[in-house]
Structure formats: structure tokens, C-alpha cells
Amino acid sequence: MRMILSLSALALGIGLAAPSAAQTVVQLGAAQTSAGSLPVVVAMQQGLFERNGITIERTDFAGGGPAVQALASGSIDVCICAADHAVRLQERGLGGKIIVALGDHHLYAIMAPADSEATDLASLQGLQVGVTSAGGLADNTVRWAINEIDLDPDTDYSIIAIGTGGAMRAAVENRAIAAGTFTTPDIQSNLALGDVYKIVHDFRSIPHAAQGIVVLDSWLEGNEETARQFAASVHEALQMVQADQAVLEEAIAEMFPQFEPALVTQVASDVRDDFLSKDGIVGREAYENMMETVAIADPNVEAVPYEDVVSTEYLP
Fold first, then answer.
1. Three-state SS for 264?
2. Signal peptide span per the entry (predicted)?
3. Do residues 231 and 213 lie in contact, with contact meaning Cβ atoms separated by under 8 Å?
């Protein structure tokens, strides 16, 4: 679903100075509605993009696979995507780059019905496990974790692409799958339901280049200044979030209007302290963990050096 975001209304609403007349339109794609999108939402709410001469046109996708396909085809300019997609784009000769880190820890957990007999990943052997999309972060991570316990993700499990959010929740609650992958804030929302869900395997403590602003070299070559202004907008949003949690709570309340205030506060605290990047730079440990995940999930993927994928030159 495509929506054109009117940032001028936001700017007027919060009393920012009017932007210059010349605005560059950036086609932004989001792999899913998750914590990784929050710095971008903050930048939009606070009028940072418009102040820097950018108008955002956003398309939301059902997972990382479709989003990165749109990026590769040129349908979008910029993607809020799992960082491993930048690696795969490099392998395809398209020059994927991460110009801003959004999250520096993993954001997924595997959840099952509260009354499920499953207690860990091994106990899901032989059962159906839902991921957002084939080849996405959830899929890669589940396959990596299964390999880590000396099982085979292709023969010992049935891994099924379900989609995000509501689709995954319906599949779990209707027992179409034994367990599914969820991100923050869906994890907190599910747990807030009481005795409905439980966490079977939690990846969130792992430093990981989870999500970032991913672009192609071909776009950077013709839009260097736009890339700098885009990165500066998101970087400032990250700084604002660390300075004042209320800014993040406002973004969460907009993205998830169904959340009660207590849940908004809980999600904001978890995201701010344990997930979001503090400086917009992909950490080397987080990158190495991401590469390990990709390599184990897909042995055909060759290691790509940090410097080939991570670009800090567009940050302030």
C-alpha cells in the first residue's frame, strides 16, 4: 500500500520553520512495520526530512524479500531493510550499501501459543515454523539457529513464509503453524495479552546489523547530496530519541494506535535501550554476526568485507 506523507502538515503542527520550496522526492520502502522504522517515523513527525529538502513517498511491503526486490528494480530509492540484503545486493553486482544503522541488536523472537508443549527451538523439530518471507532476516536467523543445534532447517523443520504482524498472529492463533517469528513491538503486544503467547526462542540479546537504511550504488552516484540529507535526518532522529524517550513514544503511538499507554511506554523503553543504534553506525561485531547468520543459512554466500557494505561518509 502506497501513501504519500504530507510532511508540511507535520511541520506546521509542531511549529517548525517552513522548508525551502525545492523538495526532492525520495521513494522509501519499508520491509515491515517494526521497531526499525521508528527513527524514520520520528524524522517525519519532527519535520526533519522536509527541513533537509526531502519529501518522502513510502511503500510498505510484506517482508524483506519483496522490499529488496523493489529496491533492485528501481521501484524505490531507499529501503528500511535487514542489513543482510545489502550483502546480497553486493553479491549480485548491484552495490548494496548501508548508509545509516537503525538497529544494532536483533529484533526477532520465536513465539508459540502459551499452552504449546514447545519449550525451545529443538522442541519444534518436525513442526511448521513461520517466518515473514523467504530469504529475509527472520528466515536467515531461524535457519542459522537450527544449524547451531546441529539440525537441518530443510529436513528437520518446515519453514513457511507467512507475512508480518497480523498474518503471523492469525497463523499462530489458528494453529496453522506451531510457532512464528515476531519483532518488537509485536513481541511486547503479544505478551501483553496475558496467557496467549510465550517466547520459545529469543534472539534480541544478539548484537546484529538488524535493520538499516539500504541503498544501491547506482542511486548514490546520482543522489549524493540527497543521501547526505536523508542520513542526516535519520541520524538527528536517533539523537532525539536518546535525549527524550517521549519523542519515541509519540512515534510508537502513531504507528500502533491500538496500543495502550502502558504498552507504548514499555515498547519505547525496550527499543531505546536495547535495539536502536545510538550513532547510526553499523558496529563490526554486529556486522560479523550478521554475516555468520547469512553464511550458515546460505553456504553459497561469500563473505563480503565490512567496508564494502557499510558506508559512514553520508552521516554528519
1. helix
2. 1-22
3. yes
In angstroms, the first-to-last Cα distance of the chain is 32
Helices (H), the chain: 7-14, 38-45, 48-51, 64-73, 84-91, 137-148, 165-173, 186-191, 217-222, 224-243, 245-255, 261-274, 284-297, 306-309
Among 153, 157, 177, which residue's Cα sits nearest to residue 167? 177
Fold of 2-105+208-309: D-Maltodextrin-Binding Protein; domain 2 (3.40.190)
C-alpha cell belonging to residue 76: 524505490
Please determine, for residue 18, whether its predicted confidence score (pLDDT) is greater than 60.
Answer: no
Q: Which amino acid is at 4?
A: I
Instruction: Count how many residues are written for the chain.
Output: 316
User: The whole model's pTM is what?
Assistant: 0.79
- Select 108-202's CATH number: 3.40.50.2300, 3.40.190.10, 3.30.750.24, 2.40.110.10: 3.40.190.10
How is the chain split into domains, by residue range?
A: 2-105+208-309, 108-202
Equal fold, 2-105+208-309 vs 108-202: yes
**Burial zone of 84 (CB within 10 Å; 0-12 exposed, 13-18 middle, 19+ buried):** buried
The pLDDT tens digits of the residues spanning 145-188 come to 999 999 999 999 999 999 888 899 999 999 999 999 998 889 99
